[in-house]
Amino acid sequence: MSDTVAATPELEKDSTTIPVAAATGSSPSAPAAVPPPANIAKLRPEDAVGKLMEYALQLPASDLFITAGETECQVLVRSLGVLRSVTSIPTEVAKKWIAHLKVAATMDVGERRRPLDGRWVYHRPGPEKTAVDVRLSTIPTLHGEDLSMRLLDLSTAQYSLSGMGMTSAQNDELITAAANPGGLILVTGPTGSGKTATLYGLLRHLNDGMKKINTIEDPIEYSVPGIRQSQVNPLIKLNFSILLRAVLRQAPDVIMIGEIRDEETAMTAVAAANTGHLVLATIHAGAAALAPQALTGLGVTPQALAYCLRCVVSQRLARTLCPACKRAFPVDDMPSLFDDVAKYLAPGEGKALYAPVGCEACGHTGYAGRTGIFEIMPVRGAIRHAIVSGAPPRQVREAATEAGMLQFRQAALLKVAAGITSTEELFRVLPAENLVSDMLDG
Ligand SMILES: [Zn+2]
């Protein structure tokens, strides 16, 4: 999963009406260009892997891949949610690298025909010896073994809610919901949409030393001091619902559930939320208004859900334009583009659009970081009535819009108007309007 919110440089003074993804421990200037490592095929496997890891971490990349081809293998990274090629290497070299990594992750070096999983802690060179948790997995493919590595940089785990990219009104709604002593807060979005970052941001906000907080994760992505973290383990049939029942016996105030995906976990989570626990969880749903149906689809009654549900967060991640090279052009061609969000625009906003160009600083991609695009649906009034009566998602969304919820499209347009991202990026990450309509009707 690639939920890491990358550092975003400061924007110009006149375009900061919306908080942008804040740098998590990095400098406010544009990131320095890091050239891909050259001639690493000739190095010893441990040296080559070290160079690759450093390159990936500096980008920063969330994943590193080695894929097998007919005559050679590709090395690729995913950075800011987009795949890019690093280099290609001879198959024999790739085999040696993969063998080296499998040994490091205590995986079976001899097994190339079955999928394998492993974990490796990479220690970066330098005085701080920062640890990076790496989740490896292999699968057999037509031309050989493919390796995938998820990089969880423990040093960048200092998530704060204010740096996620919510508008200040959205941020306030979420904080208000989290102030409830009990209830359910759901976070939804596809893989790589920043759900984990939002959950950790919430946990960090709640972790004031006066609450007992337990998490159930798959896997534990970041270690958070003061929080009791547990991980599911399919090998010993330790799943979410078994761990959740055990965690409830530990008398927590707050419980974070990595994902609700089965009936038993759904029922237990809602029961816990209805008996004084604050439960944070992710669930698979394409938009905020679809989350209630996702839970009732797992057997929870609309009444039990409406009673405990405090807020639904739905999110996507969009790349932010490189401030060093982004190019402004007048909005004349699309005069009605910002009509939908006119009342939210700050003075001067919505007059220009910005497009990516590409320069040294951004590795010629035109983008320099990522920011969240949010729907935040606080559950009260007409929204609660719609949920309790089992109304279809479209009615839930109408009630939410009536109550002032920004929809994805509007939240994204505000970022375009503020010069934070481009229209291309908006179309890339957001579900098309007709798709959302279909989902809401389904
Ligand atoms: Zn640039």
Structure description:
This protein is α/β, with parallel strands linked by helices and 442 residues long. The chain has helices at 45-58, 91-104, 168-178, 195-206, 240-248, 263-273, 291-296, 302-308, 381-388, 393-402, 408-417, 423-429, 433-441; strands spanning 61-68, 72-79, 82-90, 116-123, 131-141, 144-153, 183-188, 213-217, 228-231, 254-260, 278-283, 309-321, 327-330, 352-355, 367-378. The strands form three sheets. A seven-stranded mixed β-sheet has the order 9-8-10-11-7-12-15, with helices on both faces. A six-stranded antiparallel β-sheet has the order 3-2-1-6-5-4, covered by helices on one side. A hairpin with a 7-residue loop joins strand 4 and strand 5 (131-141). Helix 1 crosses helix 2, helix 5 (240-248) packs parallel to helix 6 and helix 8 runs antiparallel to helix 9. The longest helix has 14 residues, at 45-58. The radius of gyration is 23 Å and the shape is globular. The structure holds zinc ion. Residues 322, 324-325, 358-359, 361-362, 366 line the site of zinc ion.
